[in-house]
Amino acid sequence: MRKVALWLTVPYLGAVLGINIAIDGPAGSAVRIAGLPVFFFWTLTKIQEHRFRKLSPFHWGFLCFVLFNLLSMFWSIDATNTYILFWKYVFILGMSIVLWDLYRTEDEAQFGIIGFLVGAFIIFSQTLSNFVQKKAYFGTDRFGADGLHPNVVALVLAVAAPLAWMFATNAKGKARWLGPITYTFPLIALFGIAITGSRGGAVASLPGFIYILVDLIKRPIGIPLVAAAVFFGFPAIAAQPEIQNNFKRITETLDGTSKEAANGRDLLLQAGEEIFRRNPILGVGATGFRTASVQMGMYEQHENGVVAGAHNTYVEVASELGLVGLTIFLATVIFAIRSLWSLPKPYRTPWMCGAFSFIVLMTYEHIEWRYFLWAYMSVGVCHAYSFLREKPKLAATSVPVPSTAVRSPSPSRPEEMPGYGRGPRG
């Protein structure tokens, strides 16, 4: 049963990452119930094993964060959406605990990495489809998957690229057949980020691509491949007018020359600071930022008329859940990062590149409730703990030794050795 559950987690994680993609008809229903088979076979596994894995500090922190979100409903200014968000967190927490219980060894943790990469590839595929069909995001030159903001697409690709390279260069066992596919994923991710036109995604992707480039150059064929990409691949990609406009948008942000770069976020940050100043301990309740910012007249709207969030995870959590909620959230993230830091070096660097990307992007976007954030940390913690598992104890011998048995002489106890203390024999 465990083996079946492990295999089912691959499409499950793919569905989790792309869960907001607009899919109609039976296919959409299949995506939304993808977790049910995993939960069913995991339950059968628990019935067979009669035991649960002890939760890590990360999971206890996540549990406290979910419960505090529910508790905030008692003082929330938007209690209905607070309750809805709580059940979303329950789903994510359940996912995290099931994966934690299934991914106990390094080989089992590879299923989680594959699942995350499958989800990233699904998101890229629909983004590419929209690019080919010229279905831009609200009339701009930016493209994303249906139902997913281009910034979200860029972040998922940014953190998946170093994971794909790590998997390609360190895969073990039967997973090695995926090597040729995962070797090409960084180029796919680079193209995907270019067509999203995401400024935050471009910044967040830098650590991962630097890691890949450095590791590639160390390999015998690395320099020729880099040269071929620079002279042949990049010019072909850059020839697209949409990519040229997006590249200009990103570079203007990086050198600070674009007034549009702030995109109204200064006002949102001021609103978050004011909300926090008025409610510093407990905040205004989960999901309350938008309502509070509208009440104060300090808000922005997206192109579709929806009121914008804080576009900063730290500010949004602090304004909605106060110092208490922010402390719990940061502690949970720190627990995850501490686990990733304990990984062996070949695995630590790519995982930490992704963690750094999240830390950076959380200053650009509010992603504390996003499935992919918690999926990334959950799989990473499982991978880290797979190297920390205790060695199994030796099984007891099938032949019991009587308590009255004569103890054999031991060199470590000289007083029990023949002739000890009796002097030379005559």
Structure report:
This protein is mostly helical. It has 2 domains: 57-102 and 264-388, no CATH class; 109-258. 65% of the residues lie in helices and 0% in strands. It contains 16 helices and no strands. The protein has helices at 2-17, 25-32, 35-49, 57-71, 79-102, 106-132, 150-170, 179-196, 199-217, 222-238, 241-254, 265-278, 289-296, 313-341, 345-361, 371-385. α4 (57-71) packs antiparallel against α5, α6 (106-132) packs across α8 (179-196) and α14 (313-341) runs parallel beside α16. Residues 255-261, 390-399 and 401-426 have low confidence and may be disordered.
Gap from first CA to last CA: 72 Å
- The poorly predicted ranges are 255-261, 390-399, 401-426
- Overall shape: globular
Mean pLDDT over all positions: 78
Look at the helices and sheets and give the structural class.
mainly alpha
Number of strands: 0
Radius of gyration: 26 Å
What are the secondary-structure elements, in order, as H or E?
Answer: HHHHHHHHHHHHHHHH
Beta-strand share of residues: under 5%
Helix content estimate:
55-70%
Structural domain tally? 2
Number of helices: 16
